[in-house]
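User: My collaborator sent over this chain with a note saying "see what the structure looks like." That's all I know about it. Can you take a look?
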Amino acid sequence: MIPKRIGILGFDRLTTMHLAGPADAFAAAALEDGFGGRIPCYDVCLIGLKDGPFLSESGVTFRPAYNLRTAPELDTIIVPGGSGLRHPKITPVVSEWILSRTNGTRRIASVCTGIYGLAPTGLLDGREVTTHWRFASDVARRFPKLKVNHKRLLVKDGPFYTSAGLSAGVDLVLALVEEDYGPYVAAAVRSELVTYLARRNPNEESLSPVEYQSRPTERFGDLVAWMIRHLDHDLSVEALARRACICPSHFNRSFKSVFGSSPAAFVENLRLNEARRRLSKRNRTIHSIGASVGFKDPEVFRRAFERRFGVKPHSYLTGPRTTFAGREGNAEVLGA
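Assistant: Without extra context I'll predict from the sequence alone. Here is the result:
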């Protein structure tokens, strides 16, 4: 899978958390690869206004990998907030660069006062936006064509996203991850960061849910999470394609393009990795463990396990164990 490339702008006197928070949240988003590893969902690029490091408001030094001239093609642009963005020499540079990237970028987002870099482009004219409550009046005065509603923490209007608050960057990324890969991947990022979307006032209008786009890669995040929880279910190509609402032939091709293997090979590896983990549990037979992850035939399970790991399943049984003939004849049972 090719990660979506995220460009985060950097400039002197930005708010550290507005950069570091989104960068870490994007980095935490990943899919299981079926081999016990993780496939990153995003490639985060730090883009400076010029060559060389820049200094945040809190004194943290950042060294960008790119500048405005050398920045690669981007799926998403994130504009952090900070007092530096309101400097008369910085604002037009940021706005002009954003305008030059509009046609080739899927979406653009501002974190809190990052709206000062996005609003001058005119791209937000007539759209609802949000920002930090302390700056809402100033933004409304400077950009009267904007519909400023500082009571909303997140606002999506077309391909543009605005957010409010010190932790707005993380809240914003969680919404973007959910839009791209579904709620289960977003929930995994929340769990990894031990953070939750800031509580809204019950009377506030929440961010409207975003429907999945037609691209099948954006449905696989939820699908893989469901597969991991239902290894003993029917995980045939037909069943998975039906769940993803894609025709089987198109599903098979799309799945291979994302994960580099067929759905059948991917499912088998998910099942075998989970079986290896469960083999450490006591009082379970080889047959019951195989069945619990979707192998109905114990011989098929044994052969697949040995082919994948180079050893027989019983080699992974840990701790004292006894072997006796059970109902399946040669079932191996863990226990004293």
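A starting point for your reply to your collaborator: The mean pLDDT is 84.
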